[in-house]
Automatic annotation (TrEMBL), chains A, B:
Keywords: ATP-binding, Metal-binding, Nucleotide-binding, Transferase, Zinc. GO terms for cellular component: cytosolic tRNA wobble base thiouridylase complex. Zn(2+) 1 binds at residues 8, 11, 27, 30. This is Uncharacterized protein.
Length: 321, 321
C-alpha cells in the first residue's frame, strides 16, 4: 500500500501505507495512532459520548464495523456489539461467523437478532413482497432493530461504522437531488429524540482504506465480500465518482464532507428541527412512528406470510442506499 | 444526434435529436420551440428582464453566446453584443471573426474592447505577470470590462450564455468545497447592486447539446474550438463527471442545478446579502471595489509594463474556473 522505500512521517521507519490526502506515509504503529487520533477527534468535536456511556455498536462482519468496535474497546469505552442476521444466503452466514468469532476471541458482549428466526422473514423475501429495492427494506429493518435493541438494553448511544467514503457518497447523492431534509439529518451525531436513541459515527474522519489498514495491522479477520444484492448500486457509483475526484485532487473527499459539516450543516439546523414533528407509539411494538403501525411491523406482517424467496431471485434489484 | 427512425414527440416527423432527459425526440422545428420555451421560462421564472430593457450580451464566438444573442433578438428583445479581444493567439483572432460576422450579417450592434489595443496587455501576459492561473486573470478582466460597458452604455442588464452544463459544473465545484459565499451567489439572476449591473443567464435550462443544435438548425457559424488555455481545467472535469452521472441517470444534471435553485438557494439568501458589504470607487476607473485600486486596474498596471508573452508559454497553466 506504500511506495517501495518510502518512510513513516513520524518515525522514519519503513512505511506500510501512503496517504496522499495527508501527503504522508506511515509505518504500522503510526497508522494506528493516526486512526486513534482521528476517531478521538470525531468523538470530541461532535460530542458523541464519554467513557461513562454504554454504547451499542452495529456490526456486520465487514472491516468498518469491526474496526470501530475494536477502536472503542481499545480506548476504554463500554461497547457491546449488535448483529442482525439478514438471511441473504451465504453472505449472511459468513458475516455472522466473522462477527461471532471477533466477539468470542475478545470476550465481548454481542446482541443478535435473526430476521428469519425472530420475525419470520428475510431480506430477499421482504424485497420480493414489498416490490421495493432490497437495500430499502434492509436499511429500514436494521435501523428499527438497532433502535429497539438500544432502548431494550438501556444503551446511551448507538454507534455505526460509517466511514468518510460512506458519508461522502451519501452526501453526494443527497446533494445531487438537493433533498434538504436528508441533508439536514446527515450529521456525525444525531441526538436522541422522540424515542430514537442517539446515533454516532466515530469513523467519519477515516477512509475505508484506513479502516482496512487498521484491521490488517490489528489482525482482525473480516468479511471482504460486499453484500451481493447491493453490488452496483448508486451508492457505490457515487463512491467511484468521489474516488476519481480524490485521485485528481487529493483531500477533496474529506473537504467535501467536513466542509459540509462545518459550513453548511449549521445553516440547515432549522430545517431538521422543522422536519422532526410529533410521533406516536406503534400499536404493535411501541416504536415511534407517524402511523398506527410502524413501517417495520407493516413489513413483518406482509413478509412473514410469504414463502421464503431465495437470494438469487433478487440479485440485480439493487437500490440506491 | 437522433436514433435512426425516431420521430418527433410533437409532430411525428423524423427526429433530428433525441433528448433522454426529456425522454423524447424532436424534429428541427420543435427543437427550436423547446429552446424558445425553456429560455422564456427562465426569463419569466427568474424575472430577468422585459422587452423594454436594453440588454448587453457577452459574446465569445462560441455556440452558447451566439445562440442566446440570436434567441433574444428573435424573441424581440433589445440586445446588443459585447466582445473582448483577449489576445489568446489564433483562438482570439478566430473568435472575433465569428462574432463580427454574426453581428454584421444581422445588422446588430456590437461593442468591442481589445485588451492589447485598449489596455496594453493580453491574457497570456497577464497570466505570466501575476503568476496566477490564466483562467483567473481572464475571467476577472472580462467581468470588469463587461460591467463597465454596461454602465457606460446605460444598459439595464447584462446577459451571458452560461448553459445548464456550465452552471451545474460550477455548482459541483462550489459544492465540493462548500464555499457558502460562492454558493449563495450562484443564481440565474444577480440583481444590480453597488454599481454592478444586473446579470442574467437565460440559458440555464438548456444543455450545451441543445444550444449546439439551435446553432446548427439556425445556420449560426460558431467557433467549435475551446480556449486552448482552458483545455483540461477542473471545470471541464466537473462537466465530464456530471455527464457520466447523467448517462447513468438521465435528467440528474438538471435536477442537480434546478433543485439547488428551488430548494437550497432560498436558504442561502441571507448569506449572500451578508457577504455583499460596502464598496467604494476605484481611484483610477471608478469601478466598485473594496480597495483603493480595483483588481482590474492593478492587473493593467502590472501587465501593460511587461513585454508580450506568447500564448504557447502559458498552455497547460490552466485554472479551475
Amino acid at each position: 500500500m506504500a511506495t517501495s522505500g518510502s518512510k513513516c512521517r513520524a518515525c522514519k521507519a519503513p512505511a506500510v501505507i501512503d496517504l496522499p490526502r495527508h501527503n504522508a506515509n506511515f509505518c504500522a504503529e503510526h497508522l494506528l495512532q493516526l486512526c486513534r487520533r482521528q476517531v478521538e477527534k470525531a468523538i470530541d468535536d461532535y460530542e458523541m459520548f464519554s467513557k461513562d456511556d454504554r454504547l451499542l455498536v452495529a456490526v456486520s462482519g465487514g472491516k468498518d464495523s469491526l474496526a470501530v468496535w475494536d477502536m472503542l474497546v481499545e480506548a476504554g469505552y463500554q461497547a457491546d456489539g449488535f448483529y442482525v442476521g439478514l438471511g441473504i444466503g451465504d453472505y449472511s452466514d459468513e458475516s455472522g461467523d466473522y462477527v461471532r468469532r471477533f466477539a468470542d476471541e475478545r470476550g465481548l458482549t454481542l446482541v443478535t437478532v435473526d430476521l428469519r428466526d425472530d420475525y419470520g422473514y428475510d431480506i430477499p423475501t421482504a424485497a420480493k413482497v414489498t416490490k421495493r429495492v432490497p437495500c430499502s427494506a434492509c436499511g429500514m429493518s436494521k435501523r428499527h432493530l438497532f433502535d429497539k435493541a438500544a432502548r431494550d438494553g438501556g444503551y446511551d448511544a448507538v454507534v455505526t461504522g460509517h466511514n468518510l467514503d460512506d458519508e461522502a457518497a451519501v452526501l453526494l447523492g443527497n446533494v445531487l437531488r438537493w433533498d434538504i431534509e436528508y441533508l439536514a439529518r446527515q450529521l456525525p451525531v444525531l441526538p436522541a429524540r422522540n424515542g430514537f436513541p442517539k446515533k454516532c459515527k466515530p469513523l467519519v474522519r477515516l477512509t475505508e482504506r484506513e479502516t482496512a489498514a487498521w484491521c490488517l495491522i490489528r489482525g482482525i479477520d473480516y468479511l471482504v465480500e460486499e453484500c451481493p444484492i447491493a453490488a452496483g448500486n448508486r451508492h457505490l457509483y457515487y463512491k467511484d465518482t468521489l474516488n476519481s475526484l480524490e485521485q485528481k485532487s487529493p483531500s477533496s473527499k474529506s473537504a467535501f464532507y467536513l466542509n459540509f459539516i462545518d459550513n453548511m450543516a449549521p445553516l440547515l439546523a432549522d430545517q431538521s428541527a422543522a422536519a422532526a414533528g410529533e410521533l406516536n407509539d406503534c400499536e404493535r411494538c411501541g416504536s415511534p412512528t407517524t402511523n398506527e403501525l410502524c413501517a417495520f411491523c407493516r413489513l413483518v406482517e406482509k413478509s412473514s406470510a410469504h414463502e421464503p424467496v431465495p437470494v438469487e431471485l433478487v440479485l440485480g434489484k439493487r437500490g440506491r442506499s
